[in-house]
Amino acid sequence: MAIRKEKFTMIKVAAQNNIKADKIDEFIAIAKNLVAETRKYDAGCVRYELLQDVKNPQLLTMLEEWDDQEALNNHLLSQHFKDAMATFAGYLEKPGEINLYKTLA
Amino acid sequence: MAIRKEKFTMIKVAAQNNIKADKIDEFIAIAKNLVAETRKYDAGCVRYELLQDVKNPQLLTMLEEWDDQEALNNHLLSQHFKDAMATFAGYLEKPGEINLYKTLA
């Protein structure tokens, strides 16, 4: 019996950030740079997007898709991610919410 | 000067549903059917997915992408959407959260 390759497991992330009104432009500039660096350097990144709520411009969400948990973990350890998070900490109006998802359909 | 076509406006939706623990399987079955009918019938639907939080199986999120607000509005008026929502009302543990997003990067 042949050895079967482990099942491919996509993981999706929605990370909601509630940003101070006077820090929105700065957040967006740094987040756009984070998006560009993540897409360029981080293996296993399928999708990495910066979204803004149409009714509440202070709600800025990263929508992500990774090949697997290991790829996501490596992203969280990357210098560009850690640098961005250190800056974002001062921009938060209230704690955000991070959800990790599997796709059912 | 040539008339320029109106800018294409994609809209993304994250609709979080908090489902009663004993209704998860029923919700998933109906939501999968809703996904299939939406993909098959609703014009302007780019992406329509059913996601489940990996740590909290009661959090079931629809992740959507529409050509524009009109396409989303037509989906909300469709019979398959209204039928599913009528059923889901009895499955909710607490009110969900719906966010409409534009893409910045």
UniProtKB/TrEMBL annotation, chains A, B:
InterPro entries: ABM_dom, AI-2_Isomerase_LsrG, Dimeric_a/b-barrel. GO terms for molecular function: catalytic activity. It comes from the Bacteria. SUPFAM superfamilies: Dimeric alpha+beta barrel. Pfam families: ABM (PF03992). Residues 11-101 form the ABM domain. PANTHER family: ABM DOMAIN-CONTAINING PROTEIN, QUINOL MONOOXYGENASE YGIN-RELATED. This is ABM domain-containing protein.
